[in-house]
DUF4864 domain-containing protein (Nostoc punctiforme), 120 residues
Amino acid sequence: MEITDNDAITIRSLIENQLAAFKKDDAQGAFAFASPGIQAQFGTPENFMQMVKISYPAVYRPRSVFFEKITTIQENITQPVLLLAPDGVPLRALYLMEKQPDNVWSINGCFLVSVEGKEI
């Protein structure tokens, strides 16, 4: 799948908006950026927010955020984002993006890997 500059800009702003929602503890807002599959998995915005708080502190409260070049990993459109975790550890978040039938992008998962590239 070819990613246009517009797609890349849209994806970046989607992730930025979700990070901003986490920062404000806006569970509803953050949940809205998740794909239908992720929404079905967690059921409610509150469940989703709780999981992010516990399992993804670097995503929930990053000290800094740096967007890298969008790429494809195992046929998934992936936006790598360098995050500085609350404890100061640098991590790379790999956001798996999914284009919905109505052409709207959503976040279909996020994996944290060490900056050396190992999954944590």
